[in-house]
Amino acid sequence: MKYHAINSQLFIKNRKNFMAQMKPKSLAIFNSNDIYPVSADSTLPFEQHRDIFFLSGVDQEESVLVLFPDCPKENLREVLFLRETNEHIAVWEGEKLTKEKALETSGIKNVHWLQDLEKVLAEMMALADTVYINTNEHYRASVETETREARFTKWLFNKYPAHSVAKSNPILQRLRSVKDQIEIDLIQTACDITEKGFRRVLDFVKPGVWEYEIEAEFIHEFIRNRSKKFAYTPIIASGNNANVLHYIENNQQCKAGDLLLLDVGAEYANYSSDMTRTIPVSGRYTDRQKAVYNAVNRVKNDATKMLVPGTLWADYHVEVGKLMTSELLDLGLLDKADVQNEDPNWPAYKKYFMHGTSHHMGLDTHDYGLLHEPMQANMVFTVEPGIYIPDEGFGIRLEDDVVIQETGEPFNLMRNIPIEADEIEDIMNK
């Protein structure tokens, strides 16, 4: 891995918190992701399942974690299974975790090779009444591929049909949404790498460059700072491309006078960052562009102040809608009649700002979090309002990542990334 080793106390704490919420005489099982094939003998780069990483720090394929907190056999309360490594694998694929290294990474003392899984699991299941399975119940999830976790669950139900079944996901949704300080520091590192990429791009952008060249500038800076990739598919959208919310082709030339929307973030140690900035290709905003830009920035700043413990996500978005409506009236994009006659299910402001303002962020860019429950300190949220005006040939979105505090305004993890229009102009014209 490119990232520095993470303190195993994070994973020890995460397991302790998870096991504290399990039913008596129950065990929970977590699998790594598959390595997915492309065709012939080629595969996609491996991405670890975030849940087993959250609970163990193991960032390797073919790994299984079993937790059984009240097992009468103390050595079976935490068991990690790894693909056995050897000199041949080391030569052809590189270093894999040894049992000693796995203990150092995870804090788990009982480590077995994967070939022992069925035998050891049979011993554990005989002592358990309930088994927790790990299903994907994220509100944005739409999964068609059968995962390793899903295949394992089918095998488990067939092998042990008499056990009661419980779900790991509701526990993980709550645990993962509230970050440990170690996690916040890792997200901060991802944000700092994103800042370096953005500053590089501010020096690079000028009329005539291509969107894909800008994408290349970002990934160059990310990788040289120990990130392995973009946290999500980058959006490099010049001109009217910015009005396509998930524009990812990144294949057009940037033209003089256009705005360039950059929705880009680096990952670090599997943790995400999520930044959006909108910059002038020619280095200066027009008066109209700056007026819309500053309106979006005001909404972002005022919305950020609402992210405090106790806030409900749905109520927050209603209030942000009111802020945006006021700005759109001032810009002449809406009039009073538009607002008076609006459909309550699709308010007038949605014509120009049609997406949500904030989502949880962490190990996933759209991270775990139960949206019907009040916000808590140490949750990390994006704040990302936008105004999209196809008729005028541009769209503007601004986005920061913030940590909710016990009291006061959130802490902005992107506080050092330029965002004020004048500052961006000064940097681009220095």
TrEMBL record:
Cofactor: Mn(2+)
Alphabetical GO biological process terms: proteolysis
Class of the enzyme per the UniProt entry, highest EC level: hydrolase
Domain Aminopeptidase P N-terminal: 6-142
Catalytic activity reported: Release of any N-terminal amino acid, including proline, that is linked to proline, even from a dipeptide or tripeptide
Membrane spanning residue stretches: none
InterPro entries for this protein: Aminopep_P_N (IPR007865), Creatin/AminoP/Spt16_N (IPR029149), Creatinase/aminopeptidase-like (IPR036005), Pept_M24 (IPR000994), X-Pro_dipept-like (IPR052433)
Superkingdom to which the source organism belongs: Bacteria
SMART domains (UniProt xref): AMP_N
Keyword terms, alphabetized: Aminopeptidase, Hydrolase, Manganese, Metal-binding, Protease
Gene Ontology MF annotations: manganese ion binding; metalloaminopeptidase activity
EC code: 3.4.11.9
Family affiliation: Belongs to the peptidase M24B family.
The protein's name: Xaa-Pro aminopeptidase
Organism listed in the record: Tenacibaculum caenipelagi
